[in-house]
Design brief:
The protein is of the alpha+beta class. Helix content is about 45%, strand content about 15%. It folds into two domains: about 5-95, Phosphorylase Kinase, domain 1 (2-Layer Sandwich), CATH 3.30.200.20; about 105-290, Aminoglycoside 3'-phosphotransferase, Chain: A, domain 2 (Alpha-Beta Complex). The strands form four sheets. Strands 1-2-3-5-4 form a five-stranded antiparallel beta sheet, sandwiched between helices. Strands 6-7 form a two-stranded antiparallel ribbon. It is globular and about 60 Å long. The structure holds adenosine-5'-diphosphate. Adenosine-5'-diphosphate (ADP) binds near residues 30, 33, 93 and 95.
Length: about 290
Amino acid sequence: MSLWDDIARAIGDASGTPFAPGSPGSLGGGCINSAFRLGDGVHDWFVKTNSADRLDMFEAEAAGLDALADSGTLRVPRPLCTGISGNTAFIVMQHIAFGRNGAQGWRVAGRQLAAMHRHSADAFGWSRDNTIGATPQPNAWHDDWIDFWREQRLGFQLDLAARNGHGGRLQSLGEHLLSRFAVLVDHAPRPALLHGDLWGGNLSFDTAGTPVIYDPATYYGDREAELAMTELFGGFSADFYAAYREAWPLDGGYRVRRELYNLYHVLNHLNLFGGGYAGQAERMMQTLLASC
Ligand code: ADP
């Protein structure tokens, strides 16, 4: 049996409807995986593939998509199944036809993201670990957000950076920051359901103009960490932020915390792509230390 025969059978089993697709249409690669559209003229599915050892990553992605979809807020492709064929792991989810966006779509996205963030849990973390890009992302539950951010986020990426050969100044600044940053988080965030990797490449609009989010790194955290990431690489419109703040205003001091939260993603980029991000991370840590 070929990979695509196995995937077609898995789709038939999971959907309860026999599925005999035409040839898969390559959608090129995402950041991490190969992406395809697979259809039989009636149903279209979106399929991502990677090496078999990444099955766990796809299972975590499916659980994250389900958690976000269950919130009944932003549109999210429903996952159908995951599996392995030979040396390839795959995930299958609802295929979404993307269209054009406008100011109205951005306003809906801001409002619906605020509604998603209202979904809360008893603690910070998640029921399973997942990945951020291709990097492992630990999500052990913590009652205290500052502990969570220190141990599961900044501390984890700094340790990884040390193992990747980024020592010296980055590590000494990092150590200093870990011992002091608690004073920067002087608000009391509630655990909020987060997409977790919400840069512009992970939000699009369907043909009806409805915003859609995908490729999550889900956990319960400070909602400001999500908004911070939307600002890190840009691409979100002013209408989006206005609608979010109208639905749920931010606490004072967000601008300083934004830097602290985005440091996590810059460290992750350092661990994924190397070199150039070290200087950016060090500058961010110096700015943060100056505010502590
Ligand atoms: P990766 O895990 O490799 O980063 P993504 O999940 O971001 O891949 O998907 C790659 C691209 O495929 C996205 O940028 C988006 O354009 C498109 N895409 C993602 N999910 C769907 C979907 N459910 N239906 C159709 N296209 C999708």
